[in-house]
Amino acid sequence: MSQENPFESFLNFQKHFSPSQVPGISPEAWSDLYRKNLEALDQVNKVMAAGYQACAEKQAIVLQEAFTDAQETFRRALAGNASDDNTATAIANAGGLFEKMLSNTREIAEIMTQANVEAMNILQRRLGESLPELEGISAHPGDRPAPRDKGKATNA
């Protein structure tokens, strides 16, 4: 019995649909388009990696501060007596810690939002550049679509 992979022809789709096999497609233009797309994805990966790194660094700082603040709060609570002043101070400290936690959470969210926006801008820019490139990828000038007039609206 043969151990042939039934999906081999599907997995090796490149040999059937490579630009050199498709009439009217310039292999050089296709590989240039592909290279530019990969470069854009590389930029996106770098931006996202930097965003994740900045986020992890901020989370480490926040965690260290939270442990330090918690130790200080417990030390004060255990050192004092159960008077109303100590209780009010503990409640005020807890409120301050909560506000600090919200601020840190907001800052972490902003770090990730900034990385996501920058990555999406790279992808949108590349998409905008690649559409005209796709229209002009034809190897034969007669096969190219007619240029669109961007100033006129068409009603179909």
What does this protein look like?
The structure is a single chain. The protein contains 4 helices and no strands. With 156 residues, the chain is an all-alpha fold. Helix 3 runs antiparallel to helix 4 (84-135). The model has no long low-confidence stretch (mean pLDDT 79).
Average pLDDT level: 79
Distance between the termini: 58 Å
The number of distinct β-strands equals 0
Q: Which range does the strand content fall in?
A: under 5%
Question: Helical element count?
Answer: 4
In short:
The protein is 72% helix and 0% strand. With 156 residues, it is mainly alpha-helical.
Features:
single chain, mainly alpha, 156 residues
Set down the secondary structure blueprint:
Elements: H1 8-11, H2 14-17, H3 27-79, H4 84-135
